[in-house]
Specification:
Layout lengths: L13 E6 L6 H17 L2 E6 L6 H9 L6 E5 L1 H9 L11 E10 L1 E6 L7 H10 L5 E5 L4 H13 L4 E5 L2 H10 L4 E5 H10 L2 E5 L27 E8 L4 H15 L2 H9 L3 E6 L1 H20 L6
Parallel strand pairs: 1-2, 1-3, 6-7, 6-8
Antiparallel strand pairs: 3-10, 4-10, 4-11, 5-8, 5-9
Helix pairs in contact: 1-8, 3-10
Length: about 300
Amino acid sequence: MLPAVAGAQNLPKNIRIIVPYPAGGAGDVLARVLAQSVSEKTGSTIIVEDRPGAGSIVGTEFAARATPDGTTLLLVENPYVLSAVLHPSVHYHPVDSFEPLCFVADTPAVLAVGGKSDIKNLDDFLKAAKAKAGAVTYGSTGPASIVHIAGELLRRDAKVDLTYVPYAGSPPAMNAALSGHITAVIANYSDLRAQIDAGGLRAIAVPANKRTPLLPDVPSLAELGFKDIEASVWFGFVAPKGTPKNVTDELIKQFTAAMDLPDVKEKVKSQGLVTSLSCGAPFGAFLADQHKKYIQFVREFDIKGE
């Protein structure tokens, strides 16, 4: 381990990052990559502790109860906000219960059809939906996921009748599209990447306002005429409310430095993620905006939590 650097004395000797998801996912890997990098630079011992359950609620509530002294951090993704909207009785508020540290990466969602499908692009997809109401189906993790919401926004804005089929996760939704049981799947690029690369799936659109560098030849929904349908899965870190400012400032400094390292960037890219850094108040404003949008979408589409 490298000697601790100047300024790192503001960090506790021992830090744990709570990941409210099962081990092995993109967020878990991201947390471990950053934990190792910051630990090596500062001399602090940083461990990752997976506490999955209830759509991230179990781990998030655990972190919210932790002593706000910098020894406990939380990895957050979209469900951190969405779960609180769907389940108002949870014992945390996504804006008020934590200090925002850094937004560090995201991965785009992708609308894809089977590689052997006659549907070659979004225009074909929408024409098929208009030709026979309800015949065109799309599947995703859900219900009540960001990709489900993206499908509902496309259905609304394109004025087509799409049939939604919920699945317990991206793999079964992907397999249903591969086998032709559903017309299309909307899922994270990181989950579909292997089948897209192999030709098993054909990506026809990215629910975003601009193209992603991960799929430069696939148009965004915005350029196809459907603006403000964003379904990227984002990743960030927060600390319990009341964590001292000198500690959060040092954490932000160390996360920023780590995300700029070439080996960290490469490891992040290998998970199908795009590095994107926003820390402190701007990240807090992003979380507040996400909270506002999810409340609106859940009400508009009458989405219920399970």
